[in-house]
């Protein structure tokens, strides 16, 4: 289990956070999610591929890149 | 039936528009709703009191005033 950080573009409010939380939460293996519209930071803990996380963020209507 | 315009504070995105649309849409007598996060403008057509519209906007988590 690892914790990966992503930088999300386009979130403006709590509804945006919720949309991303919902989509990423549907990925099997995700244990915990932290997401902030203020910083654009998305932190995902679990056993999950970057590609799945990035696809889920896109599904929610935003774009993201893996952070350092 | 009249069309009234309101200025809403705090909408940032399409999710915000949807929240307001849902709450205002629950008011009996509302025929049509136009809402824009970009301009903050909410236009409600129907037979409905200002007070009900303003309360619905507050219920959605925003504030509004009747426009001219």
Structure characterization notes:
Chains A, B: It comes from Rothia endophytica. Chains A, B: Keywords: Metal-binding. The structure is a homodimer of 68-residue chains. Chain A is of the alpha+beta class and 68 residues long. Chain A has a single domain, classed as 2-Layer Sandwich (Alpha-Beta Plaits). In chain A, 32% of the residues lie in helices and 35% in strands. Chain A contains two helices and four strands; from the N terminus they run E-H-E-E-H-E. Chain A has a four-stranded antiparallel beta sheet with strand order 2-3-1-4, with helices on one face. In chain A, a hairpin with a 5-residue loop joins strand 2 and strand 3. Chain A is globular. In chain A, 24% of the residues are buried. The interface between A and B is small, with 6 and 6 residues.
Notable characteristics:
homodimer; 68 residues; alpha+beta; 4-stranded antiparallel β-sheet; 4 strands; 35% strand
Would you count the extended β strands of chain A for me? 4
Proportion of beta-strand residues of chain A:
35-45%
Secondary-structure arrangement, i.e. CATH architecture of chain A: 2-Layer Sandwich
Average predicted confidence as pLDDT of chain A:
96
Strand order of the largest sheet of chain A: 2-3-1-4
| Elements of chain A, N to C (H/E) | EHEEHE
Supply the number of helical segments of chain A. 2
Task: Quote the distance from N terminus to C terminus of chain A.
Answer: 17 Å
In terms of quaternary structure, what is this?
homodimer
According to CATH, the fold-level topology of chain A is Alpha-Beta Plaits
